[in-house]
Design brief:
- The structure is a single chain.
- It contains six helices and no strands.
- The chain is mostly helical and 157 residues long.
- It has a single domain (28-146), classed as Four Helix Bundle (Hemerythrin (Met), subunit A).
- Helix 2 (32-50) runs antiparallel to helix 6.
- The longest helix has 36 residues, at 59-94.
- The termini are far apart.
């Protein structure tokens, strides 16, 4: 009965058909959020590599070390996942087939950057984190060039 009533209402008041280039038709794209996430990955990687395990068997020292190590890893992995999400949004929602004429290696650049996000999640590798930053910088320049601008690459650290 409810289904029949709702069907009648929907048939009487049909929805207007709309189109959008992405999930939310905001039109707001910016690689800055990708840079922030990638920069956090690099920062956490450096912090992890700089950590010194306690020299003694003091339980409190080890608990503190393990807590800090775990938190850095969690942040690194979360930010690598966020960077990948932001890259995929730019790649799949902003860039269109017509951009390939100007940037024929666009797909390869994004694919490799997404792979670097995965590598940064599963390893503590400063070289990979730095490569990710370089890839995000390259995407930054491509993005702004596609908009006819030359916004400067500025990092927070």
């Amino acid at each position: 009965m409810l289904r029949s009533a709702l069907s009648s209402v929907f048939n009487y008041l049909p929805a207007t058909s709309v189109q959008a280039h992405c999930d939310g038709p905001c039109g707001v794209y910016d690689p800055a959020s990708t840079r922030v996430a990638a920069e956090a990955v690099l920062s956490m990687t450096k912090k992890l590599l700089a950590m010194e395990p306690p020299a003694n068997n003091d339980a409190a020292s080890w608990a503190s070390y393990n807590n800090t190590f775990s938190r850095y890893v969690a942040i690194k992995e979360e930010q690598a996942k966020e960077a990948k999400k932001e890259l995929l949004i730019l790649w799949t929602d902003y860039f269109k087939p017509e951009h390939l004429a100007s940037f024929p290696d666009l797909h390869d650049i994004f694919w490799k950057a997404a792979k670097l996000c995965s590598a940064c999640k599963v390893n503590i590798d400063q070289e990979k984190a730095e490569e990710l930053m370089q890839a995000v910088e390259q995407i930054h320049h491509i993005f702004w060039k596609s908009k006819g601008r030359a916004d400067a690459w500025i990092t927070a650290s």
